[in-house]
Structures are given as C-alpha cells and as structure tokens.
Amino acid sequence: MTTLPLSLEHLVRPPKTNTNKAAALFLFHGYGSNEEDLFSFAPELPPELCVISVRAPYPMPPYGYAWYAINFDANFGKWSDVQQAKKSVDKMVAFIQEAIEAYHLNTNKISLLGFSQGTVLSLAIALSYPDMVQNVIGLSGYIDEKTLVESYEKKDHSHLKMYISHGEVDPVIPFTWAQRTPPILEKLGIDHIFEKFPTGHGVSQENFYAMNAWLKRHI
Length: 219
Hints:
This protein is an alpha/beta fold. The chain has helices at 35-39, 82-102, 117-128, 175-178, 181-187, 205-218, and strands at 10-13, 22-28, 50-54, 58-60, 64-66, 70-73, 77-80, 105-115, 135-139, 161-167, 191-197. Helix 1 (35-39) links the parallel strand 2 and strand 3.
C-alpha cells in the first residue's frame, strides 16, 4: 500500500490480511514530535489493522511538529492555544475522512491512538463526532472541554470504547488532570478502562502491552 498525497503528511502500515475495507488505527503524536514516533508501535499492533501515523500541521524546528501551540507566560503560566487546537481537530477529521476513502477503510471500525497532545485531540474528535469513531486509546493526556463542540453531551456516545492511561509521576501533564477523565466518560455512558503506571510522561513496556491487549479485544 503506497502512501498517498493527502492533506496531512503520514505513514502507513497496510493490513497484513484483507486490505479492502480494513479496520484502521490512526496514530496522533505529542507536542514537538512527529509521525515516526508512534509509528514505532506498528510492528507489534494487530496485523488486521491499517495503521496510519499522522504528522501534526504546525512545524516546531528543527524536527518536530505540534497540533497546537503551548505558550509560557510569566504572569499566566502555561496555556494552550484553544483556537489552534480546534482548527487541528477540523484538519484531523477531514484527514480521517480522506484516508477512509483513499485507503478503502471500514467506516465502522475506526480507532484513534493518541499520546499527550495527540490524546487531547483524539478525545476531542471522539466526544465531538462520536459517529466517526469506534475506539480511542488515550496515553498521557486528558479531556480539554474547551476543544469540544457545543452540546457534545447531547450526542450518542454509547457505542464508544476507550482505554485511558497515565503516569503517576508525569511532570508534563499532571496525573490529577488525567483523573478528571473517567467521571466525564461515565457521565456520557462510555465504556472505558483507566490505568495508572508508576512512570513519567511516556509509554512504558507494561503500558504498551496492556493497551495493545485491550486493542486486540476491541477491533
């Protein structure tokens, strides 16, 4: 399967079984990284999946990219560019739709896997446009309700399944932020697992094995 010229740069690992109407997993990296980072997971992911690792649209020289700016201000501390985040959600939604058509994917079997900033926006996509998504794996992130569409609570999220994990000593996104996620998912009726690991801002081997086992059960 050749990588096609779509609206966002990306890498593709084709499914190793049936290539027509395959289930798909979209990978969205974190702040300052690129599409090659999470693509390192690809050899270990379920073989029936079409794995698509996407590059964020905003360059961060020399080698990284971001889904939205994070600003550091002496008076206000660290804050995210919410408008840029919302624009990236729109870009990600458009890209997923392009990829479904271009790579002949199964619209009923679309999963998202994000890390950090990629998790924030994967959750934004799933909660704002639940009809597009089947599963979400959210690593080291949180729900930022400012990135969600208005009246998202009124949408039907009952079919969604999510695996959420976080490091207990994460110095980048505090564990307390991640702890706010399960109550929101419960309120929306979303089947989910929340796991914590004695790690920082990263994905340990144990974390990877746990989320991959969950993914195999839900595709």
